[in-house]
Amino acid sequence: MRKLLTRRSLITSAALGAGGLLIGCDALSRSPSFQNILASAEDANFLVQRALGDRMELASEYSIADLSPTFRANGTRDPGTADYAESATQGFANWQLKLTGLFKKPQNFSLSALQSMPQRTQITRHDCVEGWSAIGQWTGVPLKLLLDLAQLQDTAKFLVFHCADRLGGRPYYESIDLLDAFHPQTIMAHRLNGEAVPIENGAPLRLRVERQLGYKHAKYVTGIEAVATLDNIGEGKGGYWEDVADYEWYAGI
Amino acid sequence: MTASAEKAEKRHRLTTRVWHWVNALCLLVLLMSGLTIFNAHPRLYWGEYGAHDDYAWAAVGSSQTLGYVRVGETKIETTGFIGNWRDSDGKIQTWAFPGWATIPSYYSLAEGRRWHFFFAWIFSIGLTIFMIRSLFNRHVQRDLHVTRSEWRPSHIWRSLKDHLRLRFHDDGTVNIYNILQKFSYIGVIFILLPLMILTGLAMSPAMDANWPWLTDIFGGRQSARSIHFIGMLLLVSFFIVHMVTLALAGPFKQTWAMITGGKREGSADA
């Protein structure tokens, strides 16, 4: 019996088994209906995570001593357009944040207007979907204050964040639902670690939505659009990475 | 228990058998899709943060000419296997784990995550049902419970020596599992597998908001990620030992018993 099982035959059969499995798994991965079955687990994650806690639980906050030495930048490190470059040389004095869509009173905020509103400072951990993390201190105006001024219409269900950068020729955008929009840690941040947000981290204005993964935290935000559905934005999946690489819209896990 | 009831009893109960195979499938998919996720950032840290410029206690190095695994300050060259390998078209790829080890075989973080989370649900539900059922059908108490005599160092030592001599059956006992098997099964089912679920959840930002203590007990998100990875290595080690002992103890008979239930040794007709 023992002689039957040589090392070579073990490796060969394991490789054949793995090969067969992989061909099968790749075929399943490429099948839209199977992808829908797999994606149902993401719906379960969303429902269970939202059901836990009181829905307004804060993400962990840290002390200055916990800051990571560098706050890594990912995705766009510089929007690179002429408009953006010019705005940067002026310290973003002309930067505008436009609240459009399903608002009763659409708004237009300058950067200095946002800076003169009540602020929230939080030291939080940025969790990238790739697996790395960085801890940074963010200061900005709570999104709730902006929404209170602009007053959402009853039909509004999501907020879409429009950005100044393009990745692979497409405009970057992200979206969140209203529960996250009104969360106390959801801020439009303009300071990182006590300084103006660096260009590579999203200057001058970046969304922080702390209970979700990094790709939700849109950089270079120029506009917030209130919508009833995400179907008509981009390819309808709710964000740049969702459209381009099938990332999940809900990025809580 | 009457003799006839004992006679009818299978060596492995239905719950054990169904769970065993469901679990085997889940762990294989979780391992391979987990390697896809790991490939997105093949570095491991301790603490709450860790990114490309921070010190990683373990990392995979990749280039067009070289692949290596570094653990602490020890570098092991793995060119051709990890960090630098040829795909089926003969093209050199520089992501950490090769396509034959990942699901899907091409690089897609989103698809790897979908496979991982879907099978994580099946695995978690399966483990929970198995644990509860095993308490009620007395699998835990009868087969896994370590008896007082088995705790004796001399007994453990004898069993260890038997294993090293490749003798796997305790003669004259009715236990279907020997003490070393019990230790490893208890360790895997009640410690390692739950640890994989908990460290997995501890990496989730929403779970961190809902249950901050969960991330804290592992010492931070990056520590949880490292422990999740080490746990994977332990499970792979368990699998290898499981396969070697299976091969030595009679692979066909043992596998058949795990499919059909087999006959309990030491029962009335023995």
Automatic annotation (TrEMBL), chain A:
Which domain of life, per UniProt? Answer: Bacteria
Boundaries of each Oxidoreductase molybdopterin-binding domain copy?
Answer: 93-227
User: Which InterPro entries did the record assign?
Assistant: OxRdtase_Mopterin-bd_dom, OxRdtase_Mopterin-bd_sf, TAT_signal
Pfam families according to UniProt: Oxidored_molyb (PF00174)
What protein am I looking at? Molybdopterin-binding protein
TrEMBL record, chain B:
Protein known as: Cytochrome b/b6 domain-containing protein
Q: Which organism is it from?
A: Parasphingorhabdus litoris
Q: Which Gene3D superfamilies match?
A: Transmembrane di-heme cytochromes, Chain C
Q: Transmembrane ranges? A: 21-40, 115-136, 185-207, 227-249
InterPro entries listed in its UniProt record? Cyt_b561_bac/Ni-Hgenase, Di-haem_cyt_TM, Hydrogenase_cytochrome
* A Pfam family of this chain: Ni_hydr_CYTB
Cellular localization per UniProt: Cell membrane
- Topologically, how does it sit relative to the membrane? Multi-pass membrane protein
Segments forming domain Cytochrome b561 bacterial/Ni-hydrogenase: 11-261
Tell me the SUPFAM superfamilies matching this sequence: Transmembrane di-heme cytochromes
Q: Which UniProt keywords apply?
A: Cell membrane, Membrane, Transmembrane, Transmembrane helix
